Amino acid sequence: MGKELIIDAEKFRVKPKEKVNLKEWDTDYEGERLNKELGTKLLSVGRKELSEVQEKLYAQNRYSILIILQAMDAAGKDSAIKHIMSGFSPIGVNVHSFKTPSTRELDHHYLWRHYLALPPRGEVAIHNRSHYENVLVTRVHPEYILKERIPGINTVDDIDAKFWKRRMKQINHFEKTLVMNGTIVLKFFLHVSRKEQKKRFLERIDDTEKNWKFSTADVHERQYWDDYQHAYEQALGATSTKYSPWFIVPADDKWYSRLVIAAAISQQFEKMHIVYPVLTEAEKQELVKGKDLLMGEES
Questions:
Q1: Over the stretch 258-293, which tens digit does the pLDDT of each residue have?
Q2: Considering the domain 9-295, what is its CATH architecture?
Q3: Which pTM does this prediction carry?
């Protein structure tokens, strides 16, 4: 895919310590080389190649992959998972959609439930929303932090700039530990425009088959658009690292956002040089013995 695809995912990557202004990042595709029809064909090829690499990942059993999807409501996270990840075998892939923390989860530190959903070696985990909700929705609604009952945090006034800086560092340390122990972390922010989000909300209201997707709570949160944009800018800039990068993906055109995500994953796989395990001489001898035993059986 990396050789055939005409998208260089690096252009969407946030550089370490880069100051992010989301107004400077595209939300739609403005080029001329691609269109929806071609993009769909390329994605089909990409899914096949991702499946082949995943099989090698599973057989090698040395690395794991953590794919994180974050976005404003209606940006297309669910459809991206459906269209891109369908290329992966169900064996060795798990999707986790994180909702509001339960009482039991709040009795642990905020990263606890995300530890439980990490992929074992040889497998892929996709987190639809993630530990980043703890520096996004909680930054827009800091009163949610009080439910964590953190020592020294008694009122919203205690949740200051130093608090968020510490939490970003905690997340960076968490991800660095994962990477140092064999987990490849890829993070995608699906960057949708306010105009496109409104269009998709109206489609959910007008299309009976999409009514189930709509919630008035989504419209309520839309009132905090600028606050969320600020929270994302702060998080993306502070936590995009060399070992755990963020990609800001234009999401107004769903076919294009899927293609960018697939390209980024594929190009990362290429860098890893994942191959089937190479057998030792002793293991090869075991194969010969096994074949001899099978051939010696009576028909």
A1: 999 989 988 888 887 788 888 889 989 999 999 989
A2: 3-Layer(aba) Sandwich (3.40)
A3: 0.91
